[in-house]
Amino acid sequence: MEKENKLTEGTSEIEEPIEVPLFQVPECYVYLIPPRKSAASYRADEWNVNKWAWEGTLKVLSKGEECIIKLEDKETGELYARAFLRDGEPHPVEAVIDSSRYFVLRIEENIGGRLRHAFIGIGFRERPEAYDFQAALHDHQKYLNKKKTAEEMEQQYQKSSSVDYSLKEGETLKLQIKNKPGGTIRSKFFEQGLNNLSLEEKANRKDSTILLKPPPPPPAPLSPVATDARSPQYHLLN
């Protein structure tokens, strides 16, 4: 029992990432399309869209760094085909140029140790379903890009933090600090106000002298004679 416990404790099992659903639609139609003969884009009008080869559920699942597109039977859940969206590999979905509801899906399967690929056409009944399908794939691609950026930033941080800035034995650190004279710095507000000082402020300054003119003398009073001559004579009547 002790040996079994020790073996169990020493064994580290790698946990497989869980599948997180991103999108699901119950009606998806599969078309068997002819091989592409040139580099031209696919066209849905070259298929017989009213005659599909298979009908079932389409699921978009996120599993770690992989995004899996599964085509499953509605009733039994049996896997019909699947495609993978992986970082650094060609995108498995290509839109046709004449419709927004049809796509070409690059499916793959490991048969006898060999990876096989094939191209099939898929279509949705409604346009919003097709838009949501593309949005789910786009969200997973954004997740991969953000994760890659975070890993690069972490690597840069680890490289920069590994540099040793500590002083070795016998090393000294010298700092040169230049002192600026404090009397040469003036506030702009007071510098502009030097030319607008009041009279009293200028009088208190030692380097300025203000000369004031004496006031003029008061006017001389008029004589009584001149006053009587100028004033009119009034006669009282009895």
UniProtKB/TrEMBL annotation:
Residues 213-222 have a biased composition (Pro residues). SUPFAM superfamilies: PH domain-like. Signal peptide: none annotated. Residues 19-178 form the NECAP PHear domain. GO terms for cellular component: clathrin vesicle coat. Residues 205-238 are annotated as: Disordered. One of its GO terms (biological process) is endocytosis. It comes from the Eukaryota. InterPro entries: NECAP_PHear, PH-like_dom_sf. PANTHER family: ATP-BINDING CASSETTE ABC TRANSPORTER-RELATED, NECAP-LIKE PROTEIN CG9132. This is NECAP PHear domain-containing protein. It comes from Solanum commersonii (Commerson's wild potato).
